[in-house]
Specification:
The chain is α+β, with helices and mostly antiparallel strands. 23% of the residues lie in helices and 40% in strands.
């Protein structure tokens, strides 16, 4: 899905009274910056920004266009959301930062994880435990994923998917250890006791069978 956002240049920066007036007019102040982009103060229509925030995540690529007061396009760049400030009481968006990456330049970002499939271990009474809901990675912008799908259909009891098991595109590497567990199927306490008891019973039966066989041979 393609995400687009239009904004306007903002000449007044840092003056609280002017910022409050801007917000009363239905706009949200923001800023765009990056390795090859000078910080640019912008304002975004609040309704458009709120709609966008319901559709995107930190790893969503957004095509941002900035126009001046005469409607002339002055800046156009693919960006990512870097930070969003919300009002603690009203939960309304107060400010937003956009990061404009340089082509081929590595960046750190968190990719949302989406679990798909029903584990075979769940059908045996196991509990699906998601340890990480996001994967922090270092990546080049051209291979960023909007979300990372992990299929857990084949996971059985006490089995896990680790970071090292993930298939990531070339140019992207995880920023957490490879042995870190992403998702696991935990066996309930009662089920673990039953399995242990069954294993012990099997271990006790074998010597008896062997002993019985020896007596019959004699």
């Amino acid at each position: 899905m393609e995400h687009r956002l239009e904004s306007l240049t903002r000449s007044i920066v840092g003056k609280k009274r002017a910022i409050r007036r801007l917000r009363r007019q239905g706009f949200v102040p923001g800023i765009v910056y990056g390795p090859d982009v000078e910080p640019l103060a912008i304002s975004i229509k609040k309704t458009n920004l709120v709609k966008l925030l319901h559709e995107v995540t930190e790893s969503s690529l957004i095509k941002l266009t900035v126009k001046d007061e005469n409607g002339k396009e002055v800046f156009k760049h693919e960006v990512f959301i870097k930070n969003v400030q919300y009002d603690k009481l009203t939960d309304e968006v107060k400010h937003i930062d956009f990061y404009a990456p340089e082509k081929g330049h590595k960046m750190s970002i968190k990719i949302p994880i989406e679990i798909i499939g029903k584990p075979v271990g769940a059908e045996k009474g196991g509990i699906l435990e998601v340890i990480h809901h996001e994967l922090p990675v270092e990546t080049i912008p051209s291979v960023v994923l909007e979300k990372l799908e992990i299929d857990v259909s084949n996971l059985d009891l006490n089995e896990s998917i680790h970071v090292k098991d993930l298939k990531l595109p070339e140019g992207m590497k995880p920023e957490i250890p490879e042995e870190e567990i992403i998702v696991t199927i935990a066996a309930p306490r009662g089920l673990e006791v039953e399995e242990t008891a069954a294993e012990e019973e099997e271990e006790n039966v074998e010597p008896e069978v062997i002993e019985k066989g020896k007596k019959e041979e004699e």
